[in-house]
Design goal:
The chain has helices at residues 48-64, 68-74, 112-119, 162-169, 186-191, 233-241, 278-295, 310-318, 331-336, 344-352, 360-368, 376-397, 426-434, 463-477, and strands spanning 43-46, 81-85, 123-128, 140-141, 145-146, 175-180, 195-198, 222-227, 260-263, 300-301, 401-405, 438-445, 451-457. By secondary structure, the protein is an alpha/beta fold. Helix 8 crosses helix 12 (376-397). Residues 1-36 are annotated as: Disordered.
């Protein structure tokens, strides 16, 4: 039994022979929580039998139902296989977010975006790995273990939607559901050579994921799609957004020649962040040259001074009070999951002797989160700088501008190395607190066979511009490359 070819954009979307290799041979719906997870695991808990049954129902609907046009309008994603970040509720699947305290939590309902995708005809295959509490850019935790990069098993997949990036790159799924508060869609998309889109803030609902945002962070957390093919981002985004899609301009035709392109090679030299790799800079230069030669546009190089303080701005704004004076939720409270808050120093001592149920990055975050509040006046200045930067970016981009910006200072790093440069995620995080839409676009493979890529940024509600440029660059630079093909 196979999914109907007419239910997908192209038949190669769903290589059925890969099904046995996605996870365990347990019955569908059985959580993989009782034994150590192999390090190659991407899909943590599968529902393959249910998925095949739903595919049979699609076959029956196609053979007995109304015409294709009617079905396409009612079920725009009919038969399309998807995977879901484990932080989102998918009925009958685990919903731990990599937290040992939640290892027995099974979702009893669907997150809003998952429900919308299912109603549109999509067929979930299972849930995928993330970092502990979705707050680190390596997808490893004490519940499931670590997920490896399909281009090099010694490399990270990014986080926190790393399982999604990996499973898409390995051609095991077509569409992934991810969330992003500091780059958690875009970093995995970059490291795994697929497309990812962080929508304009407030368009796609975040309901039904753990942890969810509270206070000021509700303005920074975004839910969005990861896809192997650029053309799939828009239809999936439409379904995810539901009625909120009216805020976007997805029906507007985009003339690429009329877009005002801007380019920034690096953040200006932050002391907290690694210099941008030469290969990443060279890939970005090729994009600029192609745009100018092929479209006849002039790409303007810009130097936005405040971007140098991206990490400090993100950190200050993430921990600030909202308009009603509500404090941001503490990470140590989340680690306790409605129980007693975790004492990070005690957890560090336990970790040193192998007795902690938390990962080192989570413990480190718990130790450092209070440092931001030690200098209230400095924090206030950074929040003010962030608001000023938002106004500057909106004015620069306007109704027809797109910024080319590095996705990360380095290509996919080796496992554990992010702990040495923990703030490199600032290249993606800054756009969360600015609320801007960003599309992550792959640009082929580098000299080590690892994906290269670029961020495409537009002003608020101009998602249609970055999506159009991503489709254009896919044709020019090849988009996703099957691991091992080159």
């Amino acid at each position: 039994m196979s999914l109907p070819a007419s239910a997908t954009t192209r038949q190669s979307h769903f290589p059925h022979k890969l099904l046995p290799h996605l996870g365990s041979t347990r019955p569908a719906g059985t959580p993989l929580l009782s034994d150590p997870a192999p390090e190659h695991r991407r899909v943590l808990c599968c529902r393959f039998e249910e998925a095949l049954q739903e595919a049979r129902q699609v076959d029956k609907l196609l053979s007995e139902g109304p015409g294709d046009d009617c079905l396409e309008e009612k079920f725009p994603l009919l038969g399309v296989p998807i995977t879901v970040k484990e932080a989102f509720s998918l009925y009958g699947m685990p919903n731990t977010s990599g937290l040992v305290n939640r290892r027995n939590v099974i979702a009893t309902s669907d997150a809003t975006v998952v429900s919308r995708l299912k109603q549109a005809g999509a067929i979930p295959l299972g849930v995928t790995n993330c970092s502990e509490l979705c707050m680190w850019y390596e997808s490893s935790n004490r519940v499931y273990g670590r997920t490896n990069n399909p281009y090099d098993l010694q490399r990270i997949v990014g986080g926190s939607s790393g399982g999604e990036g990996s499973v898409l790159a390995a051609a095991c799924s077509v569409v992934g559901v991810g969330s992003d508060i500091g780059g958690s869609i875009r970093m995995p998309a970059f490291f795994n050579g697929v497309f990812g889109h962080k929508p304009t803030t407030g368009v796609v609902p975040n309901d039904g994921q753990f942890p969810n945002a509270h206070g000021v962070r509700t303005s920074y957390l975004c839910t969005g799609p990861l896809c192997r093919y650029a053309e799939d981002l828009e239809p999936v985004l439409r379904v995810m957004a539901g009625p909120g899609v009216s805020k976007l301009k997805l029906n507007e035709k985009v003339s690429l020649e009329k877009i005002k392109f801007h380019c920034m090679d690096h953040d200006g030299g932050s002391i907290f962040v690694s210099p941008v790799d030469k290969e990443i800079l060279q890939a970005q230069k090729k994009v600029v040259e192609h745009l100018e030669n092929d479209l006849g546009v002039q790409v303007q190089h810009v130097a936005i001074h405040k971007m140098k303080y991206s990490f400090q701005i993100w950190s200050a704004m993430m921990s600030s009070k909202d308009s009603e004076g509500q404090e941001a939720q503490r990470f140590t409270d989340l680690l306790g999951d409605h129980g007693k808050p975790v004492w990070p120093l005690w957890e560090l001592m336990k970790w040193l002797v192998g007795m902690s149920s938390h990962t080192l990055p989570a413990i480190a975050l718990g130790l450092t989160e209070k440092l931001v509040n030690l200098n209230p006046s400095g924090k206030a200045k950074l929040v003010s700088m962030g608001k000023s930067l938002q106004e500057e970016m909106e004015a620069l981009l306007g109704p027809d501008g797109v910024l080319l910006y590095p996705s990360h200072p380095t290509i996919a790093p080796k496992h554990h190395s992010p702990i040495c440069m923990p703030f490199n995620f600032a290249y993606t995080a800054i756009f969360n607190v600015l609320g801007l839409p960003v599309t992550q676009c792959p640009l082929g493979l580098g000299s080590e066979g690892l994906p290269l890529g670029i961020q495409l940024v537009a002003a608020s509600y101009n998602d249609h511009l970055t999506l159009a440029v991503a489709r254009y660059l896919e044709k020019a630079f090849g988009g996703w490359v099957l691991p091992g093909e080159v």
